[in-house]
Amino acid sequence: MEEINALFQGFAVAMTPLNLMLMFVGVTLGVVIGVLPGLGGANGIAILLPLTFTMPPTSAIIMLSCIYWGALFGGAITSVLFNIPGEPWSVATTFDGYPMAQQGRAGEALTAAFTSSFIGAFVAVVMITFLAPLVAKFALKFGPPEFFSVYFLTFCSFIGMGKGSPWKTLTAMMLGFALAAVGMDTVTGQLRLTFGFSELMRGFDFLVAVIGLFGIGEILLSMEEGLSFSGSSARINFKVVLETWKKLPKYWVTSLRSCLVGCWMGITPGGATPASFMSYGIAKRFSPDGAKFGTGQMEGVVAPETAAHAAGTSALLPMLSLGIPGSPTAAVLLGGLLIWGLQPGPLLFVEKKEFVWGLIASMYLGNLAGLIIVLTCVPLFAAILRIPFSIVAPLIIVICAIGAYTVHNAMLDIWFMLFFGVVGYVFKKLDYPMAPMVLALVLGDRAEDSFRQAMLISQGNLSVFFSNALVGSIMTLGLVMLFWPLVAALKAKLRAAR
Question: How far is CA 263 from CA 168, 178, 304, 306, 357, in A?
Answer without folding.
Answer: 26, 31, 13, 10, 20
